[in-house]
Structure formats: structure tokens, C-alpha cells
Amino acid sequence: MATAGSNVVNSLVNSPLPLLIEKLGLAVAKAQSALDKNSIAVAQEMATTTVTINNEDYNLISLGFAPTFYAFTEATVEAKLEFSVAESEDFAIGAEVGVQAGIVAVSVSASYARKFEMSAEGSSSIAARLVSLPAPERLSELLKEIADL
């Protein structure tokens, strides 16, 4: 027969932590891809947006503007679980003796109780760090070449 403690241990072993880590990795990869596509779109818009200065048109790239790229530097999953299991047994015997005119009466009572107590607390968090980066060097060179045409 399984005890309350072994049930908690089994729950921990069968928890979906590997699945959670996999989902986090895929979410970071998908978000990184979306960020890169957005930065490329900003670069294209900067290359086609013109500003007129002294009757000459300049695109934003030729004026020194550059898109900002972002990168995830870390992503963490933290899960904490506390649990405790307590088992207690109580056994009590009580007796009462009464005497009346030569008749003796004895009353005996017995009680037995087995108690299980279990408590569990859990918390989890997911955190990601995002930093800005300059445009990749080769992209910057290409954008400058296009701007100079």
C-alpha cells in the first residue's frame, strides 16, 4: 500500500518539468526569430525613409541611424516545492469501576486513531533577460553600401 509520502515523491518524479523546459526553449527561439525579423524590417524602413537637408535627400541609414537588434542572453525556469508528511497513532484505554451493594460493574473503553497529515506548497517562475545589440557588422556594411548608391 502506498503511503502519502510516496505519493508526493511520485508526483514530483512525474512532473512535467522537462516539458516546461522544452516549451521555454521553443518560446525563446520563436521570440528571438520575431525580434530579428522586426529589426530587419526597421532597417529596410530606415533605408527607404528619406530626409531632405539643404535640398538634398538622405535616407536614415546614410545619416548614421541603425536598427537595434535584441538578443535573449538567458532564460531560467525556477520551481520550488516544499512538502511534509506526518503520521501519528493514538491508542487509549479507559476504565471505570463502580460498586453498588455487592455488585461490581466495570466499563472499559478503547480508542484507536491513525492520522495522516500532508502539506505541500509550490511556486514557480520564468525569467528572461533581453539586451540590445548593434546591427550585425555585415548588415551594417551592406546598408551603408545601399545608402551610398
What is the terminal-to-terminal distance? 80 Å
Q: Based on CA inertia axes, which overall geometry fits?
A: rod-shaped
Care to count the β-strands?
Answer: 4
Radius of gyration, rounded? 36 Å
Q: Domain count, please report it.
A: 1
The assigned structural class equals alpha+beta
The spatial strand order of the largest sheet comes to 1-2
Explain this structure to me?
The chain is an alpha+beta fold. It is built from 3 helices and 4 strands, in the order ααββββα. The protein is rod-shaped, with a radius of gyration of 36 Å. The relative contact order is 0.19.
Q: Which secondary structure elements does this structure contain, and how are they paired or packed?
A:
Blueprint: H1 4-13, H2 17-48, E1 50-53, E2 56-59, E3 69-100, E4 103-133, H3 137-148
Antiparallel strand pairs: 1-2, 3-4
Structural features:
rod-shaped; single chain; two-stranded antiparallel sheet; alpha+beta; two-stranded antiparallel ribbon; 149 residues; 4 strands
Summarize the structure.
With 149 residues, this protein is of the alpha+beta class. The chain contains three helices and four strands; from the N terminus they run H-H-E-E-E-E-H.
